Amino acid sequence: MSEKYNDPKLKIFALNSNKPLAQRIADEVGVELGKTSVDRFSDGEIRINIEESIRGCHVYVIQSTSAPVNDNLMELLIMVDALRRASAETINVVIPYYGYARQDRKARSREPITAKLVANMLETAGISRVVALDLHAAQIQGFFDVPVDHLMGAPLLADYFINHGIDENAVVVSPDHGGVSRARALAEFLKAPIAIIDKRRPKANVAEIMNIIGDVKGKRCIMIDDMIDTAGTITLGAQA
Question: CA-CA distance, 161 to 183, in Å (whole number)?
């Protein structure tokens, strides 16, 4: 274990979104998870208490803002505020899933840009850095005025597929036009071709017309998307 990991100034805290992941990260780094309690007042408000000194420490908080998104986001904001008031040297938030990322631009008039709003709230709370994984849109990185480390899952997925022989006779499929760059990144690791599902809806309440661009016949199709919610897009793509 390298000397920096024995630094008592390095602290890792877990909130409620994914404690097993936080525990595995702490085990890999070689530090114990920080002692904190997350519970609620009788009216449902979130109450957080940090049960050890973090003055002058470099703190990492592991918290996805996934479902229940509002609870997890508020937990993170309250935790950051507590850390700042307890004199942490730096507050680094690790957000494997960045919630409210779908609205990253104004697609229609009078729409909010929630991805930017979340960035504003986190910065106001007092973060020093963000570590995120596969942001829904690359421009979200620019919504922050603090450093953002944008990690990609494609190398890990590619290693898994290669180690399990899934890359043989494979084609990587993007379920829509917006995911082409993501599919291409994975395809480069697998040395595989790509295909694109072209879908369009002629008018409201009329079934989508699906076309497949690329050769998929007789191949093992690996469909990749960054966000699967109802799985409607993936299901239609698989049927096509």
Answer: 14
DSSP string, 72-93: HHHHHHHHHHHHHHTT-SEEEE
Q: N- to C-terminal Cα distance for the chain?
A: 50
Q: Is 106 a catalytic residue?
A: no
Catalytic residue (choose from 11, 35, 106, 199): 199
Tens of pLDDT, residues 155-208: 999 999 999 999 999 999 998 888 899 999 999 999 999 999 987 766 666 657
Please tell me the pTM assigned to this model.
Answer: 0.87
Radius of gyration of the chain, Cα coordinates, nearest whole angstrom: 21
Q: Which residues contact 110 (CB under 8 A, 6 or more apart)?
A: none
On the 0-12 / 13-18 / 19+ scale of CB atoms within 10 A, 113 is middle
